[in-house]
Design brief:
Layout (H helix, E strand, L loop, with lengths): L2 E5 L10 H4 L12 E2 L4 E2 L5 E7 L6 E5 L5 E6 L2 E6 L5 E6 L3 E7 L4 E7 L2 E6 L7 E5 L6 E9 L5 E8 L6 E6 L5 E6 L11
């Protein structure tokens, strides 16, 4: 068992009251296992993926496809995806260092961060053609990139830069097409995009 997919039964009702829009979830551990993450909500709001230990085959860092039909994850030195309906698993690419998050675009491009190497892109089809998107700038005293997240256009993305230079640390916006980037927010934390309502 790689992940528990807990279906969320009640749809959220639009409301101006934040408390009324809050949903409290409780997911007990199965026998002889414990939950190892806070969970990752699917884009359609129907499923919550939870890492579980033991017997998870080392699965970690789950992320969803934009259509909520597949979940990506890292396990045993590989980037993999699993189809939610069929449970078919695809070995997308080999990853041989510490992974710092992944994200999937509408065109099935997967972007992932390797600590302390950089950002990489690969087609979700599993052909294994890994492309360098951004390498660390050691002259700028970068330590790592982490937690990429595609923006709605599927070409631009957020990611965290960890650097010894306070002027570089923070949340950056990158672009797959131009390879340009700029710092959006200063600080030591990652950011998550939330579409306006």
């Amino acid at each position: 068992l790689l992940f528990s997919l807990a279906p969320l039964l009640a749809p959220l009702t639009p409301s101006l009251d934040v408390a009324a829009r809050s949903v409290w979830l409780s997911q007990p551990s199965p026998p002889e296992a414990s939950i190892a993450s806070g969970g990752v909500l699917s884009p359609d709001g129907r499923y919550l993926a939870l890492e579980r230990l033991p017997d998870t085959d080392d699965a970690s860092k789950p992320f969803w496809s934009p259509d909520s039909r597949r979940i990506g994850f890292f396990a045993n030195g590989k980037l993999m995806t699993a189809d939610i309906a069929s449970r078919a698993v695809v070995n997308v690419a080999a990853v041989d260092v510490v992974v710092a998050g992944g994200t999937c675009a509408p065109d099935d491009t997967i972007l992932f961060a390797l600590w302390p190497s950089g950002l990489y892109a690969v087609p979700a089809s599993g052909d294994g053609r890994v492309e360098v998107v951004a390498k660390l700038d050691r002259d700028a005293r970068d330590i790592a990139f982490a937690w990429p997240q595609f923006l709605p256009d599927g070409r631009r993305f957020l990611y965290q830069v960890v650097s010894l230079d306070a002027a570089r640390s923070g949340v950056h916006v990158g672009n797959l097409d131009t390879r340009d980037s700029f710092r959006l927010l200063a600080g030591d934390s990652a950011a998550t995009f939330a579409a306006p309502r």
